[in-house]
Each structure stands twice: as structure tokens, then as C-alpha cells.
Amino acid sequence: MVSTFAALTHCIERELHEVQRLFDVEIESRIPCVNDLVRHVGRFRGKMLRPMLVLFSGSACGKLTRAHVTVAAVVEMVHMATLVHDDVLDEAELRRKGATINHLRGNEAAVMLGDYLISHSYHLCSSLDSQFCSRTIARTTNEVCEGELLQINNRGRFSLDEKTYYQIIAGKTASLCGACCLLGAKLSDADDEAVSRMDRFGRCIGEAFQIQDDILDLVGDVKQVGKTLGTDIEKGKMTLPMIHFMHHAPHQHRELLQSLLESRDADKVERIRNLILPSSSITYAQGRAAQRCEEAIRTLEDLPESDARRALEMAARLVVDRPM
């Protein structure tokens, strides 16, 4: 399926190349030490899912324009900034199989680099004639921050419910994916109903992505995933598999999980992994991610058949089909 998805990117190949070029040009600094950090954070660029969501959504709803390229570069800057800041919050040392900025240069440099990326995203977005994109990006970054703050506020709350968990991930992850698809459709002059559907598509796959990310943080292989794992446990973040376990596992197992979460044992991540793996909680979370994926795909039913629509459908499925 991955190779098939790659084959479908031909419909946005030229624009995606322009996004990468614009991104690099926009964040280049005249100060060498800043450029050193910028080049390092460039390694965090993965499959560029969010720029592709902008471009595929635009292509599925109409014609791509120069504004699509600009917005695609903007959302990648915002995403990169969130990664840099997340690594500070999680005290992570590994990202995309390389050292994080905070591990390499310290928290101060990492925080400032994240701010640098955010400020450049607004600078670039302001080059567009319409204020709609700037206001959407600003609203979205507010939602991202609200989601992160809500999660911080609930650290160590081992009785966290699913409703609050979904509120957290709706802000910190799903909002940006929704904005990507919404803006892609809007810039192609799609009608309000289509724009709303694309927003819903992006938010659904954003939630599916975060649920799968939380599963990987708990039971993934660091060599496969390529970043520091176990940070949710270390930071007292209750994610969907743990929430389900705390509400459905046998009483003595729930007590053991809480005891491990409260402990400072060096091997607590591995012990929690071994406790939850045999339960139904991982399967439950995977099922919820798959449901969001299918809900996303249903929102595309009214779009005309095209490579872009097929690519969006595949992207939704690939979000929950990542190696453990």
C-alpha cells in the first residue's frame, strides 16, 4: 500500500517540491548558529503528511494554486515547531532516529527555535492576500496550545476519562490536520459544505494518528518508531490504552498499574508494557483509531473520483498502519 500511495503523489509532485524549497528559503537565517539549528531540525521532516493533506485536499476539490504551496509550507513550519516544543515537554532525546534539539543544544535553544518556526509561519502566511488563512492558522495554533495545556493539567490524573482524552487530542493533534484539509479545500473555491467535510476528514485522521502514536509510545519498538518511547508513562500522561485498562482490567491489575505509574522504578515502563500487552486495551485503542479512519473516509464520498481522493483515502489508512 505504501508504494501505491507513493505512486499517487505524482498529482502533487511539483507542488510538494515547491513546498520544500519555500520552507527552506523562508526559515534561512543570516546568522550561522541559527542555520545550524535549522538544518538539524530539517531532519525531522518525515513524509510531510500535513503539506500533503493541504495539496491533496485542494486537488480533490479543484485546482491547486500558488497559495496552496504557501499554506502547505506554513503548516509544516507549525508542525515542526510543535515537535521541537513537544521534545522539551517530554524531555525526549531521540526524534527521527537522531538527537532532539533539546538534547543537542538544551531547552533554551529548543524553545527559541520552536518560536522561530512559529514566527516564520505567520510571516509567510501574511504574504497571502486573504486574511482567512492567517486567522485559521492563528486559531489552530491556539487550539494546539489549549490541547497541550489541558494534557499538562491532567498529568498524574490516573482516573482520566475518555471524553477528556479526546478533548486533549482534538486540540493538540487533530486541529492542525483539520486546518490543512479545510484550507486546501477553501483555496480551491470549494463550497462551504465541502470545506466543512474536509475539515472533518482532517480532524478524524488527526485523532486516529494520535491514538496510534500513543499506542506506539506504549508498546512500539524504538528502532522502528525512531523516537524516544515511554514518555507518556514517564510524564504521567494517561493515553487511551491506559485509560481503558484502568476502567476495565481486573481490580488488582488496575491497582498495580497505578502503583507503577506513581513509582520511580527504572524499569517501570517495561513493567507497564508487560502488564497492558496481554489485555484487550491495545486492541480496543486500535479499534478506536480504525473507526476514526473509516469515519474520515466516509466524508470523502461526495468528492469526484480522482488520484487526489484516492490518496486521501490511503493516507487515512496508513495513519493506523504504522510499524510497531
Q: What topology does this entry show?
A:
Elements: H1 2-8, H2 13-27, H3 32-41, H4 49-61, H5 66-90, E1 94-95, E2 98-99, H6 101-105, H7 107-125, H8 132-153, H9 162-186, H10 192-219, H11 222-225, H12 231-234, H13 240-248, H14 251-262, H15 268-276, H16 281-298, H17 307-319
Antiparallel strand pairs: 1-2
Helix pairs in contact: 2-5, 4-5, 4-9, 4-17, 5-7, 5-8, 5-9, 8-9, 9-10, 10-16, 13-14, 13-16, 14-15, 16-17
Describe this structure in words.
- By secondary structure, the protein is an all-alpha fold.
- The chain is built from 17 helices and 2 strands.
- The protein is globular and about 60 Å long.
- The mean pLDDT is 90.
Any key phrases for this structure?
324 residues, mainly alpha, 73% helix, globular
Q: Can you summarize the main beta sheet?
A: 2 strands, antiparallel
Report helical residue fraction: over 70%
Order of helices and strands: HHHHHEEHHHHHHHHHHHH
The pLDDT mean sits at 90
Structure summary:
The protein has 324 residues and is an all-alpha fold. Helices cover 73% and strands 1% of the residues.
